[in-house]
Specification:
Distance between the termini: 65 Å
Bound molecules: adenosine-5'-triphosphate
Helix content: 25-40%
Strand content: 15-25%
Number of helices: 11
Number of strands: 10
Radius of gyration: 20 Å
Largest sheet: 6 strands, mixed
Oligomer: single chain
């Protein structure tokens, strides 16, 4: 009994950690079966999506708490129109990542509804839900295998041509080509260590291969130089193209083109609109924007001083 208990308990801990970090949720389908908190309804149908059509995603007056005594989301209500990008910004702890965890149905909400193409995510199978969503997490955990395998994982049966095509779209092909073993280079803990940005590009390539109807992009928090930032912007455009996308953003400059920006504060949406609309509002978003512009200016000045030495 004890022997059995330990591994199961370990899986439980691991599962909770993964839920928390949003890292590589997709590769843990098997592990998810261990999760008894979330269950499919009996005879639940699969999510029905029209061929090649991106669905609407709707959060309808969602209230949520992880623990009984502390409510995290209050009446969160928004719609991501099919094929468009909604970005979420706000202070640390305001509830941004919680939205993506809920869309993936890692937790059930206390009241309200989350719908995809008009179907409540609690009424469809978790498998079909997660098949429809691609996630680019902040921290991608790579398999101890080749870089090619790590990309191909996005789609069982992918050919080498498929892999190369998405690697090019994710701007990582040239880097891979420059490695002595190319796509056969071993990565992960026991192989080549990739930088955070490189790992994220592998995740982007994998997601492009999966070609999901819905995409969640959890932008890394680490500071980036402006060249890398432009690269992320280009990549975002690439994966969000005609896909329903939810972007958890830390750098406002990466989401100026989003069709909708939600500003969260302490679990509530306090402002919403396009970049221009929110700037005109001269509220919380405009303040965040000014602050980031100021910080960028200081950073650029430091770069210039550094370069001069
Ligand atoms: P960041 O920008 O730092 O990633 P965030 O806006 O994404 O923050 P969330 O991760 O959504 O914030 O967290 C919202 C709140 O929920 C925080 O106060 C956090 O402490 C709390 N929280 C997150 N995960 C759990 C959990 N598993 N159990 C209890 N509380 C949690």
């Amino acid at each position: 009994m004890i022997q059995l208990y330990i591994p199961l308990n370990f899986l439980g801990v691991l599962y909770r950690e993964i839920k928390q970090s949003l890292a590589d949720m997709e590769k843990l389908f098997n592990l998810m079966d261990q999760n008894k908190e979330i269950a499919d309804k009996e005879q639940a149908p699969a999510l029905a999506l029209a061929d090649h059509a991106s669905p609407d995603v709707v959060f309808q007056r969602v209230n949520f708490s992880y623990e009984e005594k502390r409510q995290i989301l209050f009446d969160v209500d928004f719609k991501i129109v099919a094929g468009t990008t909604t970005a979420v910004v706000g202070h640390s702890g305001s509830g941004k990542s919680t939205l993506s965890r809920l869309l993936f149905r890692f937790y059930d909400i206390q009241s309200g509804a989350i719908q995809i193409a008009g179907q409540n995510i609690m009424d469809i199978t978790q498998h079909s839900l997660r098949q429809a969503i691609g996630i680019v997490p902040q921290d991608t955990v790579l398999f101890n295998d080749t870089i090619g395998y790590n990309i191909a994982y996005g789609k069982p049966g992918a050919t080498q041509e498929d892999v190369i095509e998405v690697a090019k779209a994710a701007y990582i092909h040239d880097f891979i080509q420059s490695l002595p073993d190319g796509y056969d280079t071993m990565v992960g803990e026991r192989g080549l260590k990739l930088s955070g940005g490189e790992k994220q590009r592998v995740a982007i390539a994998r997601t492009l291969l999966k070609n999901p109807a819905i995409m969640i992009f959890d932008e890394a928090t680490s500071a980036l130089d402006s060249k890398s930032e432009q690269m992320i912007q280009a990549q975002l455009k690439q994966i969000a193209k005609s896909r329903t996308s939810l972007v958890i953003a830390h750098r406002l400059s990466t989401i100026v083109d989003a069709q909708q920006i939600l500003v969260m504060d302490k679990g509530r949406i306090i402002e919403r609109g396009t970049h221009l609309e929110l700037m005109a509002l001269a509220g919380a978003y405009a303040q965040m924007w000014e602050r980031q512009q100021h910080n960028n200016a200081v950073t650029s000045e430091l770069d210039v001083i550094e370069a001069a030495h």
